[in-house]
Design goal:
heterodimer; A: 118 residues; 7-stranded mixed sheet; 0% helix; 53% strand; globular; B: 110 residues; mainly beta; 4-stranded antiparallel sheet; 11 strands
């Protein structure tokens, strides 16, 4: 079965760092782009950026560039999203999803809730 | 950046009725790379349509997508109880840095 499994929910304080993960199975992880999507409480979907695990080519949408870091380790079929200094406004559900060519985001992880509060 | 405007914001319909959702882009979507997703409360988004009109694997044929350029439509021919959800369009034809989602349209039970 093709799936993306994300790490669990996190509760953090402002200023703390965090790295969440997304592990793929059932397909060739290195040959599909992995996108990250944010959904703030009660709001819509926001595209953050994307990585190609095969060569770690990474693109960020302007709103998120410099705010997060996307990385991947193809040897363990895992992509990451990390923050160096969290803010309360980073509180959201974060999804990873795979993409190949024209087929859009066809497989999604279950989401990882990040709550940032003092 | 291509801005996607979805309408209506909320659509109130009864099971069995036809739903028509619109997604209008601020500029032409390259390759008609326009997708539709369904999201139910507390659930992960699910891909319904890609390339403006191709159904994703396992999606019932009551869901159809159409359109090109700047105007796209998702049609649900006969609403089933499980179809009441929020629907998002997304363009992925621009640079990988500038993909965007619409703000969503909610289909609710009348």
């Amino acid at each position: 079965e093709v799936q993306l499994v994300q790490s669990g929910a996190e509760v953090k304080k402002p200023g703390e760092s965090l790295k969440i993960s997304c592990t793929g199975s059932g397909y060739s992880f290195a040959t599909y782009w992995i996108a990250w999507v944010r959904q703030m409480p009660g709001k819509g979907l926001e595209y953050m950026g994307i990585i190609y695990p095969g060569d770690s080519d990474t693109k960020y949408t302007p709103s998120f560039e410099g705010q997060v870091t996307i990385s991947a380790d193809k040897s363990i079929s895992t992509a990451y999203l990390q923050w160096s200094s969290l803010k309360a406004s980073d509180t959201a559900m974060y999804y990873c999803a795979r993409q190949l060519g024209s087929t859009a985001l066809d497989i999604w992880g279950q989401g990882a809730m990040v709550a940032v509060s003092s | 950046e291509i801005v996607l405007a979805q309408s209506p914001k909320t659509l109130s319909l009864s099971p069995g009725e036809r739903a028509t959702l619109s997604c209008r882009a601020s500029q032409s979507v390259s390759g008609n790379y326009l997708a539709w997703y369904q999201q139910k409360p507390g659930q992960t988004p699910r891909l319904l349509i890609y390339g403006a009109s191709s159904r994703a694997t396992g999606i019932p044929d009551r869901f159809s997508g159409s359109g090109s350029g700047t105007d796209f439509t998702l049609t649900i021919s006969r609403l089933e109880p499980e179809d009441f959800a929020v629907y998002y369009c997304q363009q992925y034809g621009s640079s990988l840095r500038t993909w965007t989602f619409g703000q969503g349209s909610k289909v609710e039970i009348k």
